[in-house]
Each structure stands twice: as C-alpha cells, then as structure tokens.
Design goal:
Layout lengths: L2 H5 L10 H18 L3 H7 L4 H10 L17 H14 L1 H21 L2 H13 L4 E4 L15 E5 L2 E12 L6 E6 L10 E6 L5 E6 L10 E12 L3 E2 L5 H37 L1 E2 L2 E2 L4 H29 L2 E3 L1 H25 L10 H10 L7 H14 L4 E3 L1
Parallel strand pairs: 1-4
Antiparallel strand pairs: 2-3, 3-7, 4-5, 5-8, 6-7, 9-10, 11-12
Helix pairs in contact: 2-5, 5-6, 5-8, 6-7, 6-8, 8-9, 8-10, 8-11, 9-10, 10-11, 10-12
C-alpha cells in the first residue's frame, strides 16, 4: 500500500472508544492504588514486584492480546499500550515487565508458533502462570545482533545450546525464555528462535545487574552450558530467528514508547501539582512564566508522543507493517520522558534531587528508554533509511 494513500486514513490522535476508556480507568485505578504505594521502596531495595505481577496475571493483563481461545483477554495493541503507560505512570519497572511479557514474547509466539505450540504455551502465558523473558543481546552483539556467538546445534531430536546472553529483562524470575541463537555457520545473520523453559538442564541465571533505574525489574545474564531441550521447541523455521526478533522488537518499541509516555506524564503531573502548592516570593510557582513554559513544553511533547504511539498501535491493529512509525514513537517518547523528568526536577528545585520527591526516580527510569529496544541513534537510522529508500513505507502484513 502506498504511503500517500494510507496516510489519509491513519489517525494521528483520537479519543479512545468506550471499551478502551473503561480499560484505561480500570488499570489506572489499580496502578495508582496498588502499584504506586510500594514503587519507591521497591526501587530502593531493587525488589521485583512478584505479588503485583501475580495480580496482573489474574486480571488478564499479562496476556492482554492473546486470543480468548488460548485463555487471553483478546484485546488489541492499543489496549496493551494503555496498560503499559498506566503501569509505568506508577512504576516504570512494572511497565517494562508487562511490556516484555506481551510485546516481546506473547506476540511473536502468537504469530510464528505452530497451532500445537500455541495450545501448549499460550494459556500459561495468558494466565500469568508463566512470566516471559526475551533474550537476544550478548557481550559483543547489542545493536549489532548479527554478531552473536551463542550457538545451537541439532543433535538427534534435541537442540544443544552453548553461550552466554546479557541484558535479559525478567531474567531472574521468568519461567520461559524466548531465545535467539546462531544455528548455522554459513551466514553472519543466520539465527533461530527457541522457547526454553527455565528449569531446563544446562540453563543458569548469571550476574544480576545493579542498575541506575527500573530497579524493580531484574536484568541478568543467562548462561547456557550444553543446554538441551526437545526439537519441537523451535519457533518458526530454522534460520528465521532474525525475522522473528525484528518483528518482536518493532512491537516492543511501541511498548517502550508507552513506558516512556507513562514516565513523562507522571513527571508532568507531579510538576504541576508542586507548582500549584509551592510559594516563593509570595507567589505560587505556577504564576511564574518560567515555570509555565516548562509545563507547556512538557505537555506539548507528551501530546505528540501519545499521537505517535497511538498511530503505531493503529497500524499494528490494522495488520499494517511499518518500520519508521514505531521508531518515531519510541525515540520521541523516550526523549520526552527524559526531558519531562529533568524539567520536573527543576520545578521541584532542591527537593527534586531527593528521593522523597519521587521525581528523581523518573529521571533514572527514563534514561533506559533511550537505550533498550534499540538506542535513539538506531531509531534515527531506521527512520532515515526508511524515508530515503522505501517508497512503500507502510505495507499490509
């Protein structure tokens, strides 16, 4: 489908319909009454929110896009983004836990797994019985995923994996890993995708990263030493791994854009609330033009981020493929989150530098959104290359 033709029917921003409004109100209430009160302590302790994740599974939010026939909620990509945004408003760690579950693992399993595999695995993911993690990066292959060295060898009816993976979100607590490893020796970008259960012999959790932000989510290495599992744990075709990974990451970028948007909105709202209460020189901060401009700049960027995010979700839900729209949403929302958190600290002044205010946590959490699921630099490359080289930028899947 030609870009010019499709652009006229893609909404850049619109009011949510009744179903999505009800979903937003429900998850917002849960996030602000159940999630938010413990967010700061979880951040300080680096504590995974196991009880909250369990509740999200029971409520259907850990399998929000999985069809009802497999036990999921059967909702769309916009619904998933709304959930991630509202969770991230309260606790960005929980937002990325949910995003990894739905965007990076549930979605590609739905798209590429066989019917037998779907029936076996999706109900466990939908109920939250299985917490998922996504494993692609290695020490020498971050943005350059084709440089991976972790390998899979088919021996009889079993795959044997050897190597080490890094930067695995949910890596410590996950029950299952969507794993990408090199399966052939002939091509640099040749890889295959596997679903590996965490209790598989030969798989161990290695180093836990001590991070600047999103400290309530675990980030670990995974070590595979003659890790063996059945042949039928291959997802998609042998050698199709990079196609599956890139498809997952495209959806994951919308998830991280939603996470960033939640952080940005929280920072904005905190800044407005403080500006209305705090007085200096006999006037509320909100009466000073300098503060008003900060609030206005934050609001403009948030509105633009939400429009890009919703546009990306609309395309996904219409089964249209685009590389540059998710990249636009991700890079702009991520940089908006850092901007808004920084401005909120400035509005708070000295208090903003202290944990008590919570806005310093927003800045620490925001930074990672400019890095994972593809750095801001890689997003700009994707956007530019698509606009320059691809006349059919949006196509039917």
């Amino acid at each position: 489908m030609k870009t010019d033709a499709v652009m006229d029917i893609i909404p850049f921003g619109y009011e949510l319909d009744e179903e999505h409004q009800m979903l937003r109100d429900s998850i917002r209430d849960f996030a602000r009454t159940v999630v938010a009160p413990g967010a700061m302590q979880r951040d300080i302790k680096g504590e995974f929110p196991a009880d909250v994740v369990k509740q999200l599974g029971e409520m259907g939010y850990m399998g929000i896009c999985i069809p009802e026939e497999y036990g999921g909620a059967g909702l769309d990509g916009l619904a998933s983004a709304i959930v991630v945004e509202e969770l991230s408003y309260a606790d960005a760690s929980l937002g990325v836990i949910n995003s990894v579950q739905n965007s990076l693992v549930n979605d590609p399993v739905m798209k590429f797994a066989t019917e037998e595999q779907k029936k076996k695995w999706l109900p466990k993911m939908a109920s939250g019985q299985w917490l998922n993690c996504f494993s692609l990066s290695e020490a020498g292959s971050g943005s350059d995923a084709g440089a991976m060295t972790c390998r899979a060898e088919l021996v009889g009816n079993e795959w044997v994996i050897n190597g080490t993976k890094l930067w695995v979100t949910n890596g410590s607590e996950a029950d299952v890993v969507l794993l990408f490893v090199r399966s052939e020796n002939t091509e640099r970008r040749n890889a295959s995708c596997f679903l590996v259960e965490k209790n598989t012999s030969g798989l161990t959790v290695g180093k836990h990263e001590d991070k600047l932000g999103i400290r309530g989510s675990s980030t670990t290495e995974l070590i595979f030493e003659n890790c063996k599992f059945p042949k039928d744990h291959l997802i998609g075709e042998r050698g199709q791994g990079f196609k599956i990974a890139l498809t997952a990451i495209d959806g994951g970028r919308l998830g991280i854009a939603a996470q960033a948007l939640g952080i940005a909105q929280a920072a904005h709202d905190k800044a407005v609330g403080y500006a209305l209460e705090r007085k200096q020189f006999g006037k509320r901060l909100s009466e000073y033009q300098a503060i008003q401009w900060k609030i206005a700049d934050m609001a403009v960027r948030i509105a633009a981020s939400r429009a890009l995010l919703y546009k990306g979700c609309w395309l996904k839900d219409q089964k249209m493929h685009s590389l540059h729209i998710p990249a636009m949403a991700k890079v702009f929302a991520a940089e908006t989150a850092s901007f808004c958190a920084n401005q909120a600290i400035q509005v708070f002044g000295g208090m903003g530098f202290c944990r008590e205010s919570e806005v310093e946590r927003y800045l620490r959490d925001a930074k990672i959104t400019e890095i994972y699921e593809g750095t801001s630099e890689m997003q700009r490359l994707t956007i530019a290359e698509t606009l320059i080289n691809d006349p059919d930028r949006i196509t039917n899947v």
